Amino acid sequence: MAKNLIDHQNALLKPITPLLHLILGTALILFSACKSTKVAQAQNGNQSKAISSCDQTIKYYSEKIRMVNSGQEKSFNTEITINPSDKLINISSEPPEQEKVSFNVVIEGIDCHLNSDLTAGQVTYNGYINQQDGSTTQITLMVEAKDGSLTITDPNSKDDGNFLMIVSKWEIIKE
Predict the structure, then answer these.
(1) Statement: residue 94 has pLDDT above 50
(2) Which residue, 2, 150, 162, 164, could crosslink 25 as a Cys pair with Cβ 3.0–4.6 Å?
(3) Would you say 27 and 141 are in contact if contact means Cβ atoms under 8 Å apart?
(4) N- to C-terminal Cα distance for the chain?
(5) Comparing C-alpha atoms, which of 45, 47, 51 is closest to residue 84?
(6) 68 part of a folded domain
(7) How would you class 135 by CB atoms within 10 Å of its CB: exposed for 0-12, middle for 13-18, buried for 19 or more?
(8) What are the respective helix, strand and coil percentages of the chain, to the nearest 5?
(9) pLDDT band for position 164 (50/70/90)?
């Protein structure tokens, strides 16, 4: 799966960056030996009612990714907006010294086991990316929370480009 994504992106974009590997098909080796940063939730003034994490539109921000096999971290500004009601995930990233990359994932299924304050559990989004040639590429994204830390990965990717996106903050988007 990751190979197909990479081949397509090579035709469309400048050289593939580690972030593009993450976005298009990366994997998680659960929290390796590295310590994730604590999530700092963006403050919303009128956020008094309980959050149903799998029904809300949530924007995740990340400033770095970690290469799972080596533990090496790289700086990348990335925003991932997950909108379950519209069945869309928007991914936008600004790799260093390259143009901004943005695309959508159409959500086909959600398997949610994430608590309402996003401190424990996981949610898996299965979907596809519409390619310019009319074909689609399957992708799975998993948001995992443990002890208040959040990461985003593709649990199905098995290649050497396995990355873990470390979420620095998140916010509920009011529709």
Answers:
(1) yes
(2) 2
(3) no
(4) 33
(5) 51
(6) yes
(7) exposed
(8) 10, 45, 45
(9) confident
Whether 131 and 139 have beta carbons less than 8 Å apart is answered as no
Our count of domains for the chain comes to: 1
Supply the range of the domain harboring residue 90. 2-35+55-167
**pLDDT(43) > 70:** no
Q: Is residue 44 part of a domain?
A: no
Nearest residue to 32 (alpha-carbon basis) of 151, 148, 115: 151
Q: Using the CB atoms, write b or e for 36-63: b if 16+ within 10 Å.
A: bbebebeeeeeeeeebebbebbbbbbbe
What amino acid is encoded at 159 in this protein? D
User: Which pLDDT band, with edges at 50, 70 and 90, does 28 fall under?
Assistant: very low
pLDDT at residue number 161: 60
Q: Does 10 reside within a domain? A: yes
Burial (CB < 10 A; 0-12, 13-18, 19+), residue 160, is: exposed
Three-state DSSP at 134 gives: coil
How many CB atoms sit inside 10 A of residue 167's CB? 24
Tokens standing for 114? Answer: 């994430």
User: In the prediction, which pLDDT does 63 show?
Assistant: 93
Residue 50 counted as domain residue:
no
